[in-house]
Amino acid sequence: MMDVATLTALLREAEEHHGAYEATAPPHHWSDWYAGYIVARQHGRSDLQAVADATLVVEGAPR
């Protein structure tokens, strides 16, 4: 279980990275990208690896 402070920090981190992705992204719902990002970070992936993982979630690549 994640505490509120940790989730808040991850959501803000995801928000920062999603802004850059949003400029060139295909149509998608932000929550799909954020969820992919947060799950990746929970599994120990770096922020840049989490960006790649979240992008794969949105763009339909196998996970």
Give the tally of structural domains. 1
Largest sheet: none
How far is it from the N-terminal to the C-terminal residue, by CA?
23 Å
Structural class: mainly alpha
Q: Point out poorly predicted stretches.
A: none
Q: Work out the strand percent.
A: under 5%
Share of helix among residues? Answer: over 70%
Number of strands: 0
Question: Could you tell me the radius of gyration in angstroms?
Answer: 11 Å
Shape: globular
H/I helix tally:
3
Give the ordered list of helices and strands: HHH
Mean pLDDT over the residues = 92
Explained architecture:
It is a single chain. With about 60 residues, this protein is mostly helical. The chain has one domain (about 5-60). Helices cover about 70% and strands about 0% of the residues. It has three helices and no strands. The radius of gyration is 11 Å and the shape is globular. The mean pLDDT is about 90.
